[in-house]
Amino acid sequence: MKNKELFQGKNILIVGLAKSGFAAAKLLHSFGANVVVNDKQPREGNQEAEALEKLGVAVECGGHPLTLLDQPIDFIVKNPGIPYQNPLLAEASKRNLPIYTEVEIAGLISEAEIIAITGSNGKTTTTTLIGEMLKNSSKSPIVAGNIGTVFSEVASQATKEDILVAELSSFQLMGTEKFQPRISVFLNLFEAHLDYHGSLEEYGKAKAKVTENQDENDYVIYNADDLQVTELMKHSKAQHIPFSVHKQLKNGAYLKDHSLYFQNQKIIELKEIVLPGKHNLSNILAAAAAAILAGAELEQIQIVLKTFAGVKHRLQYVGEFEGRRFYNDSKATNILATNAALTAFETPVILLAGGLDRGNSFDDLIPSLKNVKILVTFGQTAEKLIEAGKQAGIETIKRADNVEDAVPAAFSLSQAGDVILLSPACASWDQYKTFEQRGDMFINSVHKL
């Protein structure tokens, strides 16, 4: 671990606990920083707050009082999910106080090289693929970030013999200033999280911070089929490594003669790849390019692509019951992800969709609903999705209270040969804490059948 001295004696306010705030507080306290933690949850029953206080960290719970800014503060570390419009953070910005996420801390202290993956969709699949492809290489891969383990916590333990493979959201990247990964990956850009960022332009700028500090010794891998991503990458100083499913690229990853290539080297024939869905070809191209640049062995890449069937909650095959196949795609939290999921099936689909209403319409989903024979909706967006289903010509549409009720409702309307797919096209936060919890509820309901 390096640069610990940068934080010694600094006055740091951490806003929001959860996993990232808790890990950052412990870490910065161990560096000798003067840490104050603020969490909106009540003090009673707050185990993280209790654990930090035992370490000697000051914790204030139950809200975000502006008086916290009256004490000396060098910078703030915020939970990624807390918007900058939060009154405390808005006031901090007025006072020109730097506001970071723990990703900034991770980048400063890590001795290991970093591969950072971002994009609107496919981050988890691509990150997992890269981690698997780098096994048995010269450096040990450690997967972290938005995919599970807190990035700064992992970075504090990593050595030069490791390589960190981190899935990073726009929320996390927005709070960085000097973050410089060795390899960055920008998968795609689609209208999402506009309630947080305000516009697609601001959302794209936040994503593009993954390459903002890279130089000519670094690599940026990006989707040449996405015009918005390509435009944003014009400002990157890193070596450009494009990937495409439509064009053959001398300096990138591409498809030719029913095979996957990287810089004119054949990697694998498409028929040998087991990961389902046409949309996953882009993820595979990006992952292979990153893995090769990071030192992965060709044989290991081939083994992964011949065996890797997907990650939990992303087009996850749950099982078959009375001729119906069930798939959990709870991580499809926007329209693009659900569009991609629907293209993965040629048989009739019964779609379970709905969730948090972010104010968007579902007009862009309508063309993909042509293969949907039955639509079951739930959550805040249920009525909007019903209207989209009607416009798509779906004859059978049913509203359920939640995912647990949607599964038996879908089954009762189905017949042998159907696919029953949870692909919500919405975030989960109206009814569930996380998309993982929503997906687990789907799996549990399928098992109850």
TrEMBL record:
The residues covered by the Mur ligase C-terminal domain are 313-426
Q: What is its main location?
A: cytoplasm
Xref: InterPro entries:
Mur-like_cat_sf, Mur_ligase_C, Mur_ligase_C_dom_sf, Mur_ligase_cen, MurD
Localization (cell): Cytoplasm
A GO MF annotation of the entry reads:
UDP-N-acetylmuramoylalanine-D-glutamate ligase activity
Q: Where does ATP bind?
A: 119-125
Keyword field: ATP-binding, Cell cycle, Cell division, Cell shape, Cell wall biogenesis/degradation, Cytoplasm, Ligase, Nucleotide-binding, Peptidoglycan synthesis
Q: For this protein, what is the EC number?
A: 6.3.2.9
Keyword field contains Cytoplasm: yes
Pathway terms, separated by semicolons: Cell wall biogenesis; peptidoglycan biosynthesis
The protein here is known as: UDP-N-acetylmuramoylalanine--D-glutamate ligase
Q: Which domain of life is it from?
A: Bacteria
Q: Which family does it belong to?
A: Belongs to the MurCDEF family.
**Free-text function comment from the UniProt entry:** Cell wall formation. Catalyzes the addition of glutamate to the nucleotide precursor UDP-N-acetylmuramoyl-L-alanine (UMA).
Q: What class of enzyme is it?
A: ligase
Q: Where is the Mur ligase central domain?
A: 117-291
Please spell out the taxonomic lineage of the organism that makes this protein.
Bacteria, Bacillati, Bacillota, Bacilli, Bacillales
